[in-house]
Design brief:
Elements lengths: L13 H7 L4 H5 L3 E11 L2 H11 L3 E9 L1 H7 L5 E9 L2 E10 L17 E7 L2 H10 L3 E2 L5 E2 L11 E6 L5 E6 L17 E11 L2 H8 L6 E9 L1 H7 L5 E8 L5 E9 L19 E6 L2 H9 L4 E2 L5 E2 L9 E6 L5 E6 L1
Parallel strand pairs: 1-4, 5-9, 10-13, 14-18
Antiparallel strand pairs: 1-14, 2-3, 3-4, 5-10, 6-8, 7-8, 8-9, 11-12, 12-13, 15-17, 16-17, 17-18
């Protein structure tokens, strides 16, 4: 006999989740990611971060809200929270900054490296690498790479790409990237008078590409759009990791920034994502995915090695953050995914 869908509550009960788990597999399989909405980062001082992202970088502020209450506590898994969330736009992509006014989270370890499991960055496309690097130097950014690197032509997947890592005021890694003709999204090749064009992707360190693909490709429905194995002097200086050898896999949804896996084949001394991480810790980025059914996708993600932070789908009153319902999960490596219904 066909079961009626359970009535939505602000937080789904364990009984409701058990009932939903009995839905036909084809109903669950139909729930897939429609787009990557934005990438979120936790900051310690919103005003300082806004000066950086809107003056050093040319992001534009499009929303600035302060939220609190039990719905958000359940969504983020942080009791007693009050958050200020600022949505920024660069080109057609969005970055969201969140300052936890209460409770404050922990800073990232001062000795964080690009091969540590909590590494995540956004890659900002530039029209001219030399000019963009000069602008960043003039504005006093902190280097993460030794300088801009041009990946060698022997690498068919990445040859000719120029990139440079740097840091924001909280030490979050960022990248500027320039694609040569024939690589990257064709829109990055269009004539423009802008220097900083938009966000191409967010990159995350993964331990096992195949395990991550079971979530991002097989459950979320992202498609693989590029693969390469990068090593050599240029890659070492870009990541600032001696002996770096990476398996890189690029994936995309129908729209929004891509997701890039960085699997370090060497060196193998990267530290795992802290098991006790919480959403208010400064290393805890969130990538927001728009879905048809946030709860169904979260349940299927759990079967692909993810764990729930939210206790099911949580209703967000007033849509202050641009969605009506969401569920926060962590992927097999600990990276946070916010699955939302708009």
């Amino acid at each position: 006999m066909r079961r009626k869908p359970a009535r939505r509550h602000p937080v789904l009960s364990a009984l409701a989740l058990a009932i939903l788990s009995l839905l036909p597999a084809e109903a669950v399989g139909a729930a897939r990611v429609l787009s990557v909405d934005s990438v979120g980062v936790v900051v310690s001082d919103m005003e300082r971060s806004l000066r950086f992202y809107t003056e050093v970088l040319p992001f534009e502020k499009v929303r600035d809200v302060e939220v609190a209450g039990s719905n958000y506590e359940h969504l983020e898994g942080v009791f007693g929270l009050r958050m200020r969330v600022v949505r920024l736009r660069l080109g057609g992509e969005f970055l969201e900054l969140t300052e936890y006014l209460a409770p404050r989270g922990r800073p990232a370890p001062a000795d964080s490296r690009s091969n540590d499991g909590w590494f995540q960055h956004v890659a900002i496309v530039v029209a001219d690498m030399d000019r963009a690097y000069r602008v960043l130097r003039e504005r006093g950014v902190q280097h993460a790479s030794s300088g801009p690197q041009r990946l060698p032509d022997w690498n068919p997947g990445a040859g000719g790409i120029q990139a440079f890592y740097f840091k924001d005021p909280d030490g979050h890694p960022l990248e500027i990237i320039r694609f040569p003709t024939g690589k990257g999204d064709p829109r990055w090749q269009r004539p423009t008078d802008r220097l900083f064009l938009g966000i191409d992707h967010t990159a995350i360190v993964v331990r096992d590409t195949e395990a991550s693909l079971r979530l991002y490709r097989d459950v979320l429905g992202l498609r693989i759009v590029g693969e390469s194995e990068n090593h050599g002097d240029e890659q070492e200086h870009l990541n600032n990791v001696f002996g770096a050898r990476l398996r890189i896999t690029a994936l995309r949804a129908a729209s929004g920034p891509g997701i890039e896996f960085l699997e370090y084949l060497a060196p193998s001394d990267g530290r795992p994502y802290p098991a006790d991480s919480r959403a208010n810790d400064l290393w805890s980025w969130q990538t927001r995915f728009v879905t048809r059914d946030a709860d169904a996708v979260a349940r299927e993600a759990r079967g692909a090695g993810s764990r729930w932070v939210s206790p099911g789908a949580v209703t967000v009153p007033g849509r202050e953050l641009g969605f009506r319902e969401g569920s926060l999960v962590r992927d097999p490596d600990g990276h946070a995914l916010l699955l939302v219904e708009e």
